[in-house]
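Hi C.,

You asked whether I'd gotten around to modeling the 247-residue construct. I have! Everything is below, sequence then structure, no commentary in between.
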Amino acid sequence: MDNTDVVLRVDNLSKLYKNGRGARNISFELRRGDVLGLLGPNGSGKTSTMKVIVGLCHPTDGKVEIFGRDVDRDYERATEKVGSLIEAPAIYDYLSAQKNVKLAANCHKGISSERTDQILDMVGLGRYKRDKVSRFSLGMKQRLGLALALIGEPEVVVLDEPANGLDIEGIMEVRDLVHGLSEKRNVAFLISSHLASEIERTCNMVAVMHEGEMLSFDTMENALRHSPTLEDYYLERVREKRGTKII
């Protein structure tokens, strides 16, 4: 691959808050069709990094480029082909799932009513499309948030803990959806999770996040070459950072 395949470039990015937490000196590239997992516990800097990438907050230092455009300086054009689900999805409880998706579709050009129904079917909400969201479980709301992220047929999708609230079947459906879009349509995904097993099954790239720093960035193949599981790989990187002996 050459640089024309790079859709997202994060260069020495820092986002620090008054309490000193956030993310520091984060750098990586995401290419078309890749699924990159940010693996780390709560407070490791995953969400802070994602918020800057999609333009929800300004960086303290460094920059983010999507399709070669600086997100902080040229937000609208940089993010026009980006879909995201960060923290709780922005949905209206008093509306139906279908109306929520149609509202989101109004922010894009040429989205047909057939497309909105197709998206709801893709995330497993087709038969509930006329139900009010106020009756939805946490997992169903998470599915709806995923539908909103995908409605504009994005080429880059940023998902913060997409398995949150989902049952086993829902997690597998999201995983299959990510694999299908990345393999068939070359969509690039950036996904965060504190679950090593889910990152291992979903992603072909992995970055270990710990206490606001990125400790490693590698292919899943390389990560698992010398570590039996991704959990072991994560613990090895953290122990190396702390300078403790790996047994």
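If it helps when you're writing up: The chain has a mean pLDDT of 91.

Thanks,
B.
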